[in-house]
Amino acid sequence: MRNLGSSIYEQHSSNKTGTIMPTLYKTPGVYVEEIPKLPPSVAAVETAIPAFIGYTEKAEDQTPNDLRLKPTRISSLLEYDKYFGKPQKETAITVSVNETKDGSGVTISSKAVAKLEESARSKHIMYYAMQMFFNNGGGPCYIVSAGEYKTLAAALDGEELTAGLSELEKVDEPTIIVFPEAQFLSIDSFKGIHDAALAQCAKLKDRFVIMDVHGNTASLSDPTTKLLSAVTEFRSNAIGMNNLKYGAAYAPNIETILDFAIDETAIDVTKTVNGTSEDPVKLDTLAENNNSLYETARSAIRELPCKLPPGSAMAGIYASVDNSRGVWKAPANVSVNSVIKPTIEFSNTEQDQMNIDPGAGKSVNAIRSFTGKGTLVWGARTLAGNDNEWRYINVRRLFVFVEESVKKASEPFVFEPNDANTWVRVQAMIENFLSVLWRQGALQGVKPEHAFYVSVGLDKTMTAEDILNGKMIIEIGMAAVRPAEFIILRFSHKMAES
Predict the structure, then answer these.
(1) Which H or E run includes 195?
(2) Residue 408 lies in a domain
(3) pLDDT number for residue 24
(4) Where does residue 145 rank: exposed (0-12), middle (13-18), buried (19+ CB within 10 A)?
(5) Residue 314 pLDDT grade (very low, low, confident, very high; cuts 50, 70, 90)
(6) For residues 467 and 432, is the Cβ–Cβ distance under 8 A?
(7) What is the CATH number of the domain that holds 58?
(8) One domain for residues 432 and 381
(9) In this model, does residue 14 exceed pLDDT 50?
(10) In the predicted model, what is the mean pLDDT of residues 349-357?
(11) Are the C-beta atoms of 112 and 299 separated by less than 8 Å?
């Protein structure tokens, strides 16, 4: 029996892909042993699970406010309605209806115009942001309610949004952070929450920030706003210099096809017939007394463009591109759905200055309109636009994806023997995962060995002292695929040869 146990132990200890404890058999019989030959696998983590932090109509599941500052996972706008309510209704819209009638009282022409000053509209746009997210391919996401809607005159509170960000740190799944209402903050509060978000990304190394340019104006929806002035203000005062590789900024804002939620009891409709104005009438009164004029006014209100920052739409595009192509594909040269046009038109010369910032390197990605193509995302840079390693969004997010996936897959090896058997299993596990990514097109190289390497072992990545201190150090190198940002076609005359 002693010799049998010894031979079994020798057989098992020579297995390089797994370790089985020796068994001392005492009863004669036939025994079956399964020896693991394959390494464990790396399960790919999700790459596009945004977290939206902002104000909501309510935050309720079972009792009022039980979801306030509680990151809540949803997968549809219907779920958002259930837990967080509807948009804040607009009260500052006015409608003017001009009619021309002939002498017999027959209407010859009628025109209705609705107006809503940007400074008078609601600052709470979370609901519209969610519409843009889902309309552009978004799926599961998290909502962090910083509180209920404030009155029109009340300022948004950066500290309340920061509190929501702090709660988000406790949740592992989110991979993208968005503050849809951040443009309505003071520029100092904007800087505070986004610097904190970038710091959280650098600390956890599993998420990325999408931000909208803050130009120290009410928003970038005003066509009179100079885009480059706003970008300069953003670079100087709205974001710091730390952890820029974990964020990307987009401009300008976009005109969407979304309809405003309105308070019919607060909206005045003024009718003018042949130059003579009648007394204003509330929209809800027209609904009861003059259905024709009511529908005319409602139609004019629906024509109002709902102008929004692009960040929430970009979160949806990130999710869509990740699902259709992979996280290694740059989220650019993609149409933005539910959009009429950008609020500010600009030229290549202006985009040159947005894309490349010689001073701080804070690249700003453009949302541009192209004839025959519609509105496209025309940039793929992080805020670290001058960094050769982390210049591109897809490269940064690919590394986040691989790092998080390998980290979670490596956790079962904690407290395993720090010896060659374990090293071989870990190395094979990671190499198999990276091989799959290479075949999918995520890594550059004709052969796997050109695309990545995984190294672990004594005198390779560890010293004897490292092993004594319980450290297993694994080095992974990847040749990430980078976008063809500049395609250069070179032409020349060729001399006739026949």
Answers:
(1) helix 187-204
(2) no
(3) 84
(4) buried
(5) very high
(6) no
(7) 3.40.50.11780
(8) no
(9) no
(10) 92
(11) yes
Residue 137 and residue 249 share a domain = yes
> Do both 267 and 168 map to the same domain?
no
Strand order of the sheet with strand 339-342? 306-308, 254-256, 339-342
- State the Cα–Cα distance between residues 36 and 51, nearest whole angstrom: 40
Q: Which residue among 395, 423, 455 closes a domain? A: 395
445: left (phi over 0), alpha (psi -120 to 50) or beta: left
Map 387-410 to HEC letters: CCCCCEHHHHHHHHHHHHHHHHHH
- State which H helix or E strand residue 256 sits in: strand 254-256
What's at 432, amino acid-wise? N
Provide the domain count of the chain: 4
Report the half-sphere exposure of 304 (CA within 13 A, side-chain side).
Answer: 25
According to the 3-state scheme, what is the secondary structure of 133-147? HHHCCCCCEEEEEEE
Q: What is the pLDDT of residue 10?
A: 36
pLDDT at 102: 84
**Residues 102, 110 contacting (CB under 8 angstroms):** no
140 burial class (0-12, 13-18, 19+ CB within 10 angstroms)? Answer: middle
Domain membership flag for residue 278: yes
**Amino acid in the structure at residue 98:** N
- The tokens for 346 are 């600009």
Contact 144, 51 (CB under 8 A): yes
- Are 222 and 298 contained in the same domain? no
Residues 255 and 265 in one domain: no
> Tens digit of pLDDT for each residue in 16-55?
444 556 678 889 999 888 887 777 899 999 999 999 999 9
Same domain, 58 and 164: yes
Residue 400 lies in a domain: no
Among left, alpha and beta (phi > 0; psi -120 to 50; other), residue 436 is alpha
Residue reference for tokens 């999710």: 319
Q: Tell me the whole-structure pTM to 2 decimals.
A: 0.91
Question: Which helix (H) or strand (E) covers residue 160, if one does?
Answer: helix 158-168
- Domain that residue 104 falls in: 94-117+261-302
Judge if 325 and 459 occupy the same domain. no
**Structure token pair of residue 127:** 């609901």
Say if 492 falls within a structural domain: no
If asked whether residues 104 and 181 sit together in one domain, one would say no
Which segments within 274-427 are labelled E, that is strand? 276-277, 281-282, 306-308, 339-342, 364-370, 374-378
Closest by CA position to 377, among listed 337, 436, 413, 409: 337
- Report the phi/psi class of residue 434: left, alpha or beta, with left for phi > 0 and alpha for psi in -120 to 50: alpha
218 has pLDDT over 70: no
As to burial, measured by CB atoms within 10 angstroms (0-12 exposed, 13-18 middle, 19+ buried), residue 332 is buried
What pLDDT score does 429 carry? 95
Report the distance separating Cα 144 and Cα 158, nearest Å.
14
Mean pLDDT computed over 4-26: 50
